[in-house]
Hints:
Layout: H1 2-9, H2 25-35, H3 39-52, E1 58-60, H4 64-72, E2 82-84, H5 87-93, H6 104-112
Parallel strand pairs: 1-2
Amino acid sequence: xxxxxxxxxWDGELIEPTYTEGISSTELIAHQxxxxxxxxxxxxxxxxxxAAKPLVRVCESHSGLTALMIETxxxxxxxxxxxxxxxxxxxxxxxxxxxxxxGLNHRLQSVDD
Length: 113
């Protein structure tokens, strides 16, 4: 209602866009997350980010839970362009030394989580 009042003060008009029937952006996003992204696509996206932005914000994640927390963090402008996962923090979370004892399959499972 406040927006409508401001629009009236400025002689503005509220224009509602027409939406495509049968297409849900929520479903499209869920489908994209389900099919996953290849490493080539991630690398291309990172290169575009680096080329387009003066500063790319990346945050380290050591588990699926911390990745989810970082991904959904929007408060106070703390939004990250990418997540990074390291063998050191993954090993530490599992109580193992960082000597590649945690195999690639376990690391990829953390990414899937």
